[in-house]
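A reminder before we start the practical. When you read a complex entry, don't treat the lines as separate problems. The point of joint prediction is that each chain is placed relative to the others, so the output describes one connected object in space. Small molecules and nucleic acid strands, if listed, are placed in the same frame. In the example below there are two entries. Take a minute to note the order of the lines before looking further.
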Amino acid sequence: MLNYDIVVVGGGPAGLAAAIEAKKNGADHIVVIDREYELGGILQQCIHNGFGLHIFKEELTGPEYAERFIDELKEMNIEYKLDTMVLHINKDKQLSVINTVDGFLKIQAKAIILAMGCRERTRGAIAIPGSRPVGVMTAGTAQRFINMEGYMVGKKVVILGSGDIGLIMARRLTLEGAKVMAVAELMPFSSGLTRNIVQCLEDYNIPLLLSHTVIDIKGKERVESVVISKVDENRKPIPGTEIEYECDTLLLSVGLIPENELSKSAGIKLAQVTGGPIVNESMETTVEGIFACGNVVHVHDLVDWVTEESKKAGKNAARFIKKEIKPSKEIVKTIPGEGISYIVPHIIRSVNLEETVDLFMRVKNVYKNAKLVVKADEEIIKEIKKNYMAPGEMEQLKIPSSLFKEKQISEISVVVIKDGE
Amino acid sequence: MDTRELVCIICPIGCRMTVVKDDYVSLGYKVTGNTCNRGEAYAVKEMTNPTRVIPTTVKIKNAQLNRLPVKTNAPVPKGLIFECMNIINKVEVEAPVRLGDIIIENILGTGIDVVATKTMEKI
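Here is the predicted structure of the whole assembly.
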């Protein structure tokens, strides 16, 4: 059995930031484990720019953003194991790990930080009917093929789903000479960042078909065409609106699922809406000493926020080892009210708060001229006016810790109130 | 009316801006809805000479993978994007390459360089 103070599972932006911050806060014996041959995670295939505007005040590409953290990790002499898979974690913080150099390893950690990120939803997850030819793949798979391995995935492409990866890939494929016929989106709004709709679709005159979905895939060996249909308000295809698009490739950008098999093996409770662990103010899961951060907790739209959240997890894992995190029975629950789909963290123990607690949340619909209203039990404590809110853009609220000292609170809820209501 | 609704793409906040031609202000356009100065500069540029950074890849030999990510180190005029891609796609480099290394100097005489965005070691 090997012994470490902190084991970080995943060497992407979350794992890197968490490990660095843990070391800065006095944890010494740390190891980062990743299954890839290099650190950096999904950033290595996100070669587009737009990363780091909040953290570094400059616009970096994914690999550049990753390299800053990888360099810092190496300078700090933090250990890492690549090409290594964590097979199992138990609630006593023991990990079963395997690679081709060390073979099978058992590791006992004092604290664990889960930073495994997400997986893409596939054709199976959304059950598109039709035949099963070559040429149907997730947008992220295509991104890796094109940007890292140098394989072009197709010449005439339809993209289903207008999440950021789908939008980015529409531009990328166009730049590399493919014709992107259309991006179809089931919802009446895009779940991607508005800036990506502008610079990836509008710049290249790629049509965005809102309230549309793929209802059939045709082709024997290779995709030959897909059929796109308009959907009604219940997201059911409307007969008579079908249009057949000739194409050789269908990319799917239909959502991400936090990768929590290991969390489940450790007995960690997952939240239903996010699919990620339930976490408290310290980014600690329901198993004491196991922390989680980044997209494994909830899908972020900006890596900058992943870094922020992961620093918090890293710092608190270090504090946990020094026994500075206080267990407490007095908990405040965060409750997503009308118009809000989820809030992270789910639980606040006020004894562990610094000056403020940051609440991250997503709204359920597109709202114009509305406000976010925060209530402590039934009393309104904060109102924030918002010109525009959309499910694709995460909202962030700061609540001063002093609030919890002034009086006993059992829950904090947030609701969306439209103008004039 | 010389008015355009724009979404700022400088950062992921994506401010919704209105740009109105206005000869009385020094920039020639009046911009509203932006939350920082960069938004105003972007809006005016978008009306006069829109530009974009091109992030893409070039072929690389003797590295772990066969593509090296690169970008233009400044935004190039939108109209030149595909011409730039034609040049970039003909280039092949050899590992090792350091982040920031110039891969193509002064592309199309724009004064803008194409630089590596990743360090790739020789294997």
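Discuss with your neighbour: The two ends of chain B are 60 Å apart (CA to CA). What might explain this?
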